[in-house]
Structures are given as structure tokens and as C-alpha cells.
Design the sequence.
């Protein structure tokens, strides 16, 4: 065993891990990071970045094909899916290479090997990786998540055969399936349904709930579904998948057993924390329902051990992971910092985009908070009207009835992913409408509808 004792050992090189490593090194902590696969985690390799690369190509194609309402016609537009996949790979390689370069610049030692926690000795926590042993005074676990595969008959066999795909496999798929069944209408399911619908695949979304978009505001989710129904996507809401075959998916739908023929099936039911198989039990870290239990600073039940990112099961978003890793490092340094989970924005990168931050009216009611809801059409924005023929985008504000403070913002329409950042700041501060009204929004922009919405609430 090396005599060296690190100030911090990090398991996992995704957004939580690599960002925390950089912050820790900047603060003077001698840091080693373990990553068994590629730096960048799910986000850079098989999640956020690859999907956005595909979706942007689809957006350009849609603009070319559907430009007539704007006075633009283009004959002969076609999609080159293998080229798009190759471009996606180049983008991913560039970004993951950038992460590696940044870690080297910060003098973070990177060990590209599976890390196993073996115990805790007098000098600190002990890890074994690639036949070598490492010791560190602190431990940050950022082991991430993986696609959930529930015990549906035939599901795992379908993945093994290549008929069933998780988010990892579908982003490497070079052939365009004629028919795609998507199990799950959440973020991953809707984004992939959007892409394959744009490039000509017949898409059917099977969702067990009575709405798409997961925890998205019901009105916003309804508008999203309506937009994709117009584009030809079929939705089977309230459908319970009972089996996956070799060329179809079977479900219980509207009181009947229905078989949905398809060439590929995407399993987008959700993700689960990766918290087993690397020795957490050897140091007594507490897990509940498969996720590491942490407080707002990332601390676990074991002194000297923190966890950040998807592994804590709180908010499986890359930007949450960044923030959690930073909060954990600051806590290690004795700087009080807590993550405010009520002001974390979320985005679905469909066309139109969906973005939310803060509470829905239902969530506020569950907390005993009386609210006012106000939905305003984006057509109040000159820019939105100019760029969206027959657009149905809206911005919904959820406002505390007593103090007229902003508790939630829910958006569907162009630029939603960019607008939501400013809304997150307002929600974090629980700004009163009277404060927001005094801010100057640039004109013409879509975001100025927020100011109009504030004036409409009295």
C-alpha cells in the first residue's frame, strides 16, 4: 500500500465527481478521482449532450421541411442518421476530452479503473482499484445511476438481444427503425420520441400514468402531448406493460390486452441509483430504496463520507449534481452551504421545449400553501408571435396568495430552456411580484411575458 494519504477520494467521474474534483483541488485538497468508464458520466456520454446533439439536427430538419408558413420552401431535405450519430460521437469526444484536460490542469489524479471501498483504517478510508490500494481522509461518492429495468417478462431478454434499448443503446443506434415503441413518457421517452418522430419513425409512447412529462405541471404536459399528437406520435396513457416480445410490446390498456408491433423498443421507465457492488457496506453508509441518504450538504451517516449526484436519488439532473458536489466540497472545508432543491430548474428538450422550476399548484397545496395560478399565452410576445406560426406556448406562474411571492414557473414554448434560468433566481429568492415588475426585460424577447404575467395578478 502506498504511504500517500489523499485529502479527498472521489468515486465517479460524472458531473458531480469531476466538478467537485476541480473545486476541491482549487481549494488545496490533494484529490484522486476514480472512474471505471469514460469521464463525463451519463450526462456527457449517453445522456444530456448526445441527446441534444441529435435533437438539434432534428430541429434543423424540421425547419427545412416545415418552413412554408414562414415563406421558406426547400425541396429535397433529407436526414442522414448515421452522419448525425458520427457527429454526436465527435461532440462527446471533444467534451469528455475537455473534462480530462481540466482535471489535469487542476492537478487531480485520475484513476481509470473500478474502485472498491475495502474499509477504513487509522489513516483514513481505503480503496482498491486496478490492483492498487489508495487511502484518503475524506470520501465523496458520485457513482451515478443506471436505466431502471423492472421485472417485466421479456424485458431484460429484449435488451440482451438488441430489440430492447436503454438510453445508452438508442444513442448508438445507426439504423432508423420504422416503428418505435417507447415505454415511459418522461423526459428521456419524450425527447427520443421527438427525435425519431422528426426523422420519420412511427412512434408509440406507452405511459402508465395519465399524463406525459413526469412531474410536469398538468396543463403544460397536456399542451406538450397535443403538439406531438399533431405530429403523429401515438400515446397510450394509463397503459401497463405486461410483456416484451421479440417484435412487439404487450400492455393492458383501457381494459383490454393490446399488442403494439414495433421494430425496436426504448425502455425509458426511469433511472435508479448505483449504490451497490463497490463496498459501501464495508464502511456502513446508509441507503434507502437503493439511494444513499444525504442531507442538504451531501453528508452521509458516516463522518468523512459525502455523496452527490444521482446516487442520492434526490434530483437526477446533471446541473443538480454539479451543485451537490460543490456543496459537499464546501462542507468539507467548513463553509456552510446547502442545496436548495425547490429552485432547481428542469427541462424537456422537445419541440416545443418544456421548462419548470419551483412548485406546482398541487405541490404547494400539499404543503398547505394557498396559491394563485396564472397562465399567460406567449403570443403576448412580439418575438414569439413572429417566430411561431399558430404557436400555443404559455408561461404559468404559481404565486403565494398571502405575500404575492413567486413559488413556481412552468413554461412550454421556444426558448423555455433559456428563460427558466432567470425564473430560478426569482423562485430561489421567492421574489414578490412587485419586485419583478421593476426589472427591465429586453424587448422584443419571449421572457418579457413573465413581466406581463406579474402585472396580470392582483
Sequence:
Amino acid at each position: 500500500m502506498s504511504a500517500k494519504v489523499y485529502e479527498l477520494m472521489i468515486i465517479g467521474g460524472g458531473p458531480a465527481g469531476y466538478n467537485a474534483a476541480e473545486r476541491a483541488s482549487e481549494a488545496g485538497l490533494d484529490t484522486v478521482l476514480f472512474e471505471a468508464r469514460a469521464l463525463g458520466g451519463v450526462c456527457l456520454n449517453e445522456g444530456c449532450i448526445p441527446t441534444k446533439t441529435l435533437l438539434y439536427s432534428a430541429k434543423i430538419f424540421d425547419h427545412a421541411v416545415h418552413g412554408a408558413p414562414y415563406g421558406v420552401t426547400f425541396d429535397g431535405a433529407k436526414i442522414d442518421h448515421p452522419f448525425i450519430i458520427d457527429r454526436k460521437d465527435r461532440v462527446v469526444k471533444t467534451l469528455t476530452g475537455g473534462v480530462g484536460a481540466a482535471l489535469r490542469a487542476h492537478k487531480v489524479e485520475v484513476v481509470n479503473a473500478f474502485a472498491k471501498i475495502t474499509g477504513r483504517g487509522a489513516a483514513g478510508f481505503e480503496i482498491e482499484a486496478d490492483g492498487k490500494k489508495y487511502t484518503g481522509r475524506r470520501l465523496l461518492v458520485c457513482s451515478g445511476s443506471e436505466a431502471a429495468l423492472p421485472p417485466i417478462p421479456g424485458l431484460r431478454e429484449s435488451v440482451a438481444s438488441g430489440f430492447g434499448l436503454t438510453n445508452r443503446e438508442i444513442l448508438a443506434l445507426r439504423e432508423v427503425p420504422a416503428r418505435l415503441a417507447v415505454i415511459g413518457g418522461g423526459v428521456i421517452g419524450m425527447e427520443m420520441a421527438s427525435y425519431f418522430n422528426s426523422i420519420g419513425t412511427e412512434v408509440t409512447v406507452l405511459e402508465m400514468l395519465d399524463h406525459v412529462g413526469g412531474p410536469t405541471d398538468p396543463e403544460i404536459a397536456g399542451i406538450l402531448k397535443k403538439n406531438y399528437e399533431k405530429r403523429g406520435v401515438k400515446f397510450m396513457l394509463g397503459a401497463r406493460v405486461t410483456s416484451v416480445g421479440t417484435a412487439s410490446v404487450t400492455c393492458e390498456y383501457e381494459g383490454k390486452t393490446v399488442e403494439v408491433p414495433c421494430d425496436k423498443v426504448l425502455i425509458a421507465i426511469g433511472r435508479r441509483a448505483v449504490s451497490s457492488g463497490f463496498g459501501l457496506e464495508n464502511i456502513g453508509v446508509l441507503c434507502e430504496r437503493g439511494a444513499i441518504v444525504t442531507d442538504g450538504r451531501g453528508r452521509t451517516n458516516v463522518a468523512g463520507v459525502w455523496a452527490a449526484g444521482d446516487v442520492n436519488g434526490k434530483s437526477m439532473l446533471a446541473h443538480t449534481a454539479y451543485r451537490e458536489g460543490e456543496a459537499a466540497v464546501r462542507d468539507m472545508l467548513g463553509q456552510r452551504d446547502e442545496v436548495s432543491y425547490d429552485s432547481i430548474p428542469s427541462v424537456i428538450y422537445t419541440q416545443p421545449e418544456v421548462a419548470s422550476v419551483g412548485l406546482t399548484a398541487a405541490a404547494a397545496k400539499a404543503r398547505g400553501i394557498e396559491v394563485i395560478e396564472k397562465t399567460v399565452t406567449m403570443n403576448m410576445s412580439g418575438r414569439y408571435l413572429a417566430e411561431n406560426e399558430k404557436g400555443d406556448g404559455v408561461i404559468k406562474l404559481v404565486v403565494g396568495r398571502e405575500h404575492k411571492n413567486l413559488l413556481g414557473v412552468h413554461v412550454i414554448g421556444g426558448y423555455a430552456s433559456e428563460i427558466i434560468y432567470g425564473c430560478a433566481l426569482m423562485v430561489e429568492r421567492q421574489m414578490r411580484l412587485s419586485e419583478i415588475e421593476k426589472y427591465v426585460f429586453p424587448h422584443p424577447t419571449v421572457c418579457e411575458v413573465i413581466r406581463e404575467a406579474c402585472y396580470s395578478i392582483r
Notes: The chain has 14 helices and 26 strands. The chain has three domains: 5-146+272-339, 155-269, 342-455. Residues 85 and 172 are 7 Å apart (CA to CA).
